[in-house]
Amino acid sequence: MRVTFRRWVHLVLGGALLMPYFLLATVFTMLFVRDVTAFTEAPWQFVAFGAALPLGALSALLFPALRTLESTATRSLCGLTPAVAAELAEEPADSWAARRRTALWFVAHLTAGGIVSGMTLAAPPAAVVLLLLPVADPLRHEEQGWPAMEGVLGPLAGLGLLALVAGTSWLAGTLLARLAPVLLGRTPADRLAAAERRAADLASRNRLARELHDSVGHALSAVTLQAGAARRVLDSDPEFARQALTAIEETTRGAVAELDTVLGLLREDGDDRSMAPAPTLDDLDGLLDRSRAAGLRIDADIDDGCGRLPPLVSREAYRMVQEGLSNALRHAGAVPVRLRIALEADGLRIMVENPMENAVGGMVGDTVKTAKGAKADAGSDTAAGASRPGGGRGLRGIAERARLLGGEARAAGQDGVWRLTVRLPLGSDR
Predict the structure, then answer these.
(1) HSE-up of 68 (CA within 13 Å, CB side)?
(2) What local confidence, expressed as pLDDT, does residue 295 receive?
């Protein structure tokens, strides 16, 4: 009963939406009819009603936002199941196919709403009169054009008239509920556009996650080790503790600058002027100094031509080196690390090696493929394969960065050495 009432309200809303078009059609029709009083007759009113429907269809074709309004009203008043309601499009009808569907729906809504609204206005008063015929003066009603009905015929006719209104409302509401997902649902073009938006949003979120993991995660790993070392030797070696605190200060300052860069990507105004520039291989010396201050003994061999790399390749290469050093620092501790960055005929090659003897959990065995051209220890993101809560993102991030540039990344442990190798083509620029 509640659903029927809500659908009746939806139909009456359609009748209300019809009125401007009906009045406009009446005005236009009057231009071709001399006898204005003719519009008090039912045939001309039906003519105006029929002329109003194309005007409603035209408005649906010209105003894409009408689909959003109709979907909202239909979802609220048509008594649809949650699954069916979810199929209705919320966005405006941008394509012509979607506009044509919306026009058909709008015409159906106006037609059914006009009929039900007219019956709702006219039938109840007539039904009341018929219900009162047995107790009223029959001659008076015959003079006013009402048929003479004896006994219970009048009340039965009144009840039948009310039942006709209720049945028509139920039938029209049910038909509109059936048509809603067909005419107001998303077209294949809408579904494709929505999928593209979801993919773009997911790519943006993954990019932010990689940036936060590589920049802030590296800084926190370094700061944790430096703070622990300072705490242990605070009484016995105050000078070393001061150096560690200085390194912590510099590391956190750099992390704050990189965090500002990442958060700048979330700003709605799109103003990049206040954002710190993303680090590139030109900033590698600072990264190496901070990593050495955290305890890594880095042997770096960097090709002089890295300063001439395309900006995008240089930025992504910096993040990969940062994650490789952070991985060694986080899971192997203060170990010697070998870093090689070389320009070769097939692109830029990056290699990060560190021993695994100090790592928790032993050595890494087999590797599994995690992305196109990228391998990592199964279920692990550590230099020694030790699992940890929340881990597994660093190597996946490196694999994603390499894949997006058309390159490949491989990470595996062998003979007590954890080795990360990356190859990036040089044709990408941004």
Answers:
(1) 8
(2) 78
CA angle 399/401/407 to nearest 5° reads: 75
Q: What is the chain's alpha carbon radius of gyration, rounded to the nearest angstrom?
A: 37
DSSP sequence for 355-410: E-TTSTT-----EEEEETTEEEETT--STT----TT-S-HHHHHHHHHHHTT-EEE
Phi, then psi, of 265 in degrees rounded to 5? -70, -20
The token pair at 65 is 């936002």
Local structure of residue 276 (DSSP, 8 states): P
Mean pLDDT by 10 residues, the chain (430 residues): 90 94 85 63 82 93 93 91 89 89 95 94 86 65 54 80 92 94 87 79 76 72 78 82 81 76 61 61 85 84 85 88 84 85 88 72 34 37 38 74 88 88 76
User: Using CA atoms, how far apart are residues 332 and 326, in angstroms rounded to an integer?
Assistant: 10
With vertex at residue 311, the alpha carbon angle to CA 426 and CA 285, rounded to the nearest 5 degrees, is 105
Nearest to 404 by CA among 218, 261, 207, 216: 207
Contact 318, 346 (CB under 8 A): no
